[in-house]
Amino acid sequence: MSSFNRRLALMLLLAPLAACNFQPVYGPGGSGEVIRNQIRVSDPTTRLDFEVLSRLEDRIGTGSTYELDFNIETGQRDLAIDESENIDRINVIGSMSYTVRAAGTGQIVDQGEVSTFTAYATTASPVATASARRDAENRLAVALADQLVTRLIASAPGWP
After folding, report:
1. Measuring CA to CA, which residue among 83, 2, 67 is closest to residue 35?
2. What values do phi and psi take at 123, rounded to 5?
3. pTM for the whole thing?
4. DSSP string, the chain
5. pLDDT tens digit sequence for 108-130
6. In the Cβ-directed half-sphere of 155, how many Cα atoms lie within 13 Å?
């Protein structure tokens, strides 16, 4: 029979968090409240912009207190080449610069850049390769949007 007490262990692990004012992001008074349903994202101009917009609205909603503008740049890098010198795997690299402004004044409250990559495999079928590329671009858009939300949550407590 073990004398291990899970509740005591959990309290001991969480005690340092309480001492440093740990607060859930989406809890009452958390920084998630600052951005939740408060940001209007600029209208999309490309398919990738639309994917990012869709993910952002799923994660943080939409509002009119702040305005978010972003710009996505993508590229690709060949990763794997087989013995016949055919490219088998491609990285899709993306970066997104962003600016958040207060809607009433136009004052910049946050700006920066996030970046990441995804990959896809090529096949002998052009249709399958195009579908894989599109899927990789969609995953890239979701990853960029998720990184952006994390940055916004981190910086939101300092916004006016």
Report:
1. 67
2. -135, 180
3. 0.81
4. -----HHHHHHHHHHHHHHTT---TTSTT-HHHHHTTTEEEPPP-SHHHHHHHHHHHHHH---SSEEEEEEEEEEEEEEEE-TT--EEEEEEEEEEEEEEEETTT--EEEEEEEEEEEEEE--S-HHHHHHHHHHHHHHHHHHHHHHHHHHHHHHGGG--
5. 999 999 999 999 998 888 999 99
6. 16
